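Extended Data, panel c. Modelled sequence:
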Amino acid sequence: MKAILDTASNAVILIDHTGAIRYCNAHAGKIFGYSCDELLGLSMDLLLPDNLQAGHPAQRQSFFRDPSARAMEARRDLRARHKNGSTFPVEIGLNPLQTPTGLMAVASVIDISGRVLHEQKDRVHAERVALLNQKFEGVLAASPYGVLTTNEEGVILFANRVAATLFGYTLEELTGLNVDQLLPDGMQAGHQAMRDAFIRNPSMRAMGENRDLVARRKDGVEIQVEVGLNTMQTEDGVEVLASILDITQRVQAVKRQERLNQELMSSNDALEESNLELQQFAYVASHDLQSPLRSMASFAKFLQEDYYDTLDEEGKQYTQRIMDGATRMKALIDDLLTYSRVESRSMPFTPVDMELVLDEVLDMLTISIADLDAEITRDPLPSILGDRGQLTHLVQNLISNGIKYHGDKPPKVHVSSKLLNGAQTLSVKDNGIGIDKEHHGKIFEIFKRLHGQQEYPGTGIGLAVCKRIVKRHNGAIRVESAEGQGTCIFVDFPPDATSTTA
């Protein structure tokens, strides 16, 4: 019997009613750190932690009063003490044994330190996994995308609130639903085969690879979606993680943009056709209209020069009207040609010294300035990247208007420039009659005139030409004025139009 017990994998100790150890096997000495000889006669209480020793005699007496087998229990709070004073977890089973010397208790003791350590590791691992799952679900819940996880049968195991809102379900309704029910009727039949193929050959499918996906809300409304797919291997099998984004508004915006682009292309075609017609008109105006107009003016002048004395007063007035009409018609045709040629006869942009442009304009307007005793002042002007001819025409028109629309006082015109945020603003300010605020939006329209020919002659095209020139230079033209308080015209050039500053 002793030989058998010495080969046992658990400690066996025989204890009398006083708690003295009367027998132990080899394994008992091993787990407690004693030799069997050392254990024999030792009190069993000494093999217990200090905090258990005081109560152990009472427990022992209870066992001897009621000597019944007490099976080994998986209690993790039982501990024994090693010879070196350390404690370790144990499981203990008790059995009564009647011997010639009296009743004994047979204690079977198992050191479960390895098992407890393993269980602790398992518990820590489980806690970490639970924490990771909690964080994972937290991330999914906070995702801006709708997120679903499904099993191999397509049953939804998890859904975040975005997905629930996206499909019009509550979280409780969505969880447990088959994902096929989120598809239009015509797509449900073939979806299972697609899902099975994906499970057999799982590979990440990035969101946005297929823009033609359609889903169905609880209310039956179909929506455009993007779907990203991935798989997760779990204890219960493969699970599919789907990220879903509602792109209905984006698709509608793209369609609107495509429609607008189409309309823009149509508008561009119409504009190109209109420009072509305008160029054709310019050709006709410069050839077919100018020729009879010159003939009419020549014959009217012939009448004035050779037959003036033979004409009565009424005839002289008619002849003068013909001359005036021809002159106005020629000015109108010339202005229309200028307006139409802003694009057709434009030149490439080069750095243009606006100081030199202003000098050239003032030379051209010398007679008008002298006749009206006009005063032209200036600030240093920059260089502008643009079409020199058109910029010259622009400045000439603005200064001419400042001189022409003067009041009782001699005209004063000031030309200046200001740099703001890298962009140049050219301004031409006069002390003339001014423009009422209600007409500010009209003065840049073609043929719009605020005064009669007798007051201020003109065609009503000059500022329209200015606006077209400024538009070609990617700028903007605007006015600040009040009736009787002069006018200031501002031309705002874009930042990339500034070449150098004076």
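The chain has a mean pLDDT of 82. This feature is highlighted in the accompanying rendering.
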